[in-house]
Design goal:
This protein has 183 residues and is an alpha+beta fold. The protein has helices at 14-31, 56-72, 144-150, 170-177, and strands at residues 8-11, 92-94, 97-103, 111-114, 124-130, 135-143, 152-153, 159-162. Strand 5 (124-130) and strand 6 (135-143) form a beta hairpin.
Length: 183
């Protein structure tokens, strides 16, 4: 918790970390030219570090999505987009609404959405931050409608940003979307 802000902290088991690294390697192979055709040597370590190398962005994405799965009580097999290419601009559908999970490389960073995605907006965005070891903090969420109202263009025009302090907490998000988190 920073100040009065309430995060949901998810810590992965070694088995979950193995699965996350496997999915990230598979996603990396499907999305990047040249691929990544073997599992990294650092299984059992879900950590955004230099060890991740070129697979770092894929590891970050899968870690955030896996944390959302744990929060919602979903199997990791529910992580559907980008495993074999093609990002439709969202990661999950709950109660007919699209949810895009975004993970940053460090704690304290804001929610950023790259413009190259070619998709106007998901119904909801969720911001995640890495924990020191084998975990993710679910910081909060914002509706796509509010995103469009509050976004600020990043320098260079490559993406848009919303400050993390203005997000709904995950509990508020769950209540608003009328979904039952399993935590």
């Amino acid at each position: 918790m920073i100040g009065e802000y309430d995060f949901v902290d998810i810590t992965f088991t070694p088995e979950q970390c193995d699965e996350i690294v496997r999915m990230a390697a598979e996603r990396h192979t499907g999305n990047r030219k040249g691929g990544y055709n073997h599992l990294p040597e650092w299984n059992n370590e879900c950590k955004i570090s230099d060890k991740a190398g070129a697979m770092r962005v894929d590891l970050m994405g899968v870690m955030g999505e896996a944390a959302f799965c744990v929060y919602m009580g979903l199997q990791f097999s529910y992580i559907q987009t980008s495993l074999h290419g093609g990002d439709e601009g969202y990661d999950f559908v709950q109660n007919g609404r699209t949810i895009d999970v975004k993970m940053t490389t460090k704690r304290g960073r804001n929610l950023i959405r790259p413009r190259f995605k070619g998709v106007d907006c998901a119904d909801y965005y969720i911001l995640c931050w890495p924990q020191a070891e084998n975990g993710v903090s679910l910081v909060g969420a914002i509706s796509g409608r509010r995103w469009l109202q509050e976004k600020v263009q990043m320098s260079g025009g490559w993406g848009d940003m919303v400050r993390w302090g203005g997000l709904k907490t995950m509990r508020e998000f769950s209540d608003h979307l009328d979904i039952q988190a399993r935590m």
